[in-house]
Amino acid sequence: MEIVVLGTPEAVCLRAARVVAAEIRAKPNAALALAAGATPRGIYAELVRQHRTEGLSFARVSAFNLDEYVGLSPEHPRSFRRALAEELYRHVDLPADRTFTPDGTAADLPAACRRYEDQIAAAGGLDLVLLGLGRDGHIAFNEPTSSLGSRTRIKTLTEETRAANQPGFGAEPVPRHALTIGIATILSARRIVLVAFGTAKTDAVARTVEGPLTALVPASALQLHPHVTVIVDDAAAHQLTLRAYYRTVAEAKPDWQRED
Q: Which backbone phi and psi does 236 adopt, to 5 degrees?
């Protein structure tokens, strides 16, 4: 696990965007799993900029939403499908038929989850997963006690998660259920990037990176993956015992390993 500590949220987003862009340039038909929400917005803004000014092409990319609320149509103003469309998909040359979202409106939700896993497999598996981090250590909507062997499925959201997402819904209640790719699905990807910033994520970052592997902190499962990059700002890194060492590692990287 590589830990990158940067000074600001803006620097975190720029570094993460460079990693995603490098993946696309190295493999133009890359399959990406992408998070929605506030954390990755700056990442998507930078990817759009690179598309417009540096020729970054999404024409052969396959993009998979990490999750979706049960009961919300893709056109619903609070659906993750719509969020990614407005923040990324509509602004780049990504074909509509190469964007995928779990179908939270399906009559048979387990079948919809199996179909989503089949779509990921048909794309050749995930090349890169871009993750945010919940305050309780969840990734995608894999809430605490999620199975480390889980695949795409329905999850009941914790009250903490629903409360964190409530501002985006206004007076409308946050759905109690969501479809999410599983932890095993995430770990099957060839590369994982996790992004977090701000004091609210301090405890979750420390437990993810330096805590024990436990289902109570689903993100700690990333310790099992051979190619994970965790990019955080100073505030989110505050409780990391070895944060000085992580900076030393970054400074001492050989040129062939550098991505900045």
A: -70, -25
Residue that the structure tokens 């790719």 belong to: 181
Q: What Rg, from alpha-carbon coordinates, does the chain have?
A: 17
Active site residue 138: yes
Q: Extract the tokens encoding 195.
A: 């992004």
Question: One-letter amino acid identity for 144?
Answer: P
User: 159 catalytic, yes or no?
Assistant: no
State the catalytic residue, choosing from 23, 87, 103, 143. 143
Q: Domain range holding 234?
A: 2-257
Catalytic-role residue among 46, 67, 103, 127: 67
Domain count, the chain: 1
CATH number of residue 53's parent domain: 3.40.50.1360
Q: Which of 23, 103, 127, 138 is catalytic?
A: 138
Do 232 and 203 touch, CB atoms closer than 8 A? no
Catalytic-residue membership of 143: yes
Instruction: Look at residue 79 in the predicted model and tell me its pLDDT.
Output: 94
pLDDT at 96 over 80: yes
Name the pairing type of β-strands 128-131 and 191-196: parallel
> In which band, very low, low, confident or very high, does the pLDDT at 257 lie, cut at 50, 70 and 90?
confident
Examine the residue annotation and report whether 233 is marked as an active-site residue of this protein. no
Report whether pLDDT(103) > 70.
yes
Do residues 62 and 53 touch, judged by C-beta distance below 8 A? no
Q: How far is CA 37 from CA 83, 132, 143, 179, in A?
A: 8, 8, 16, 15
State which amino acid sits at residue 170. G
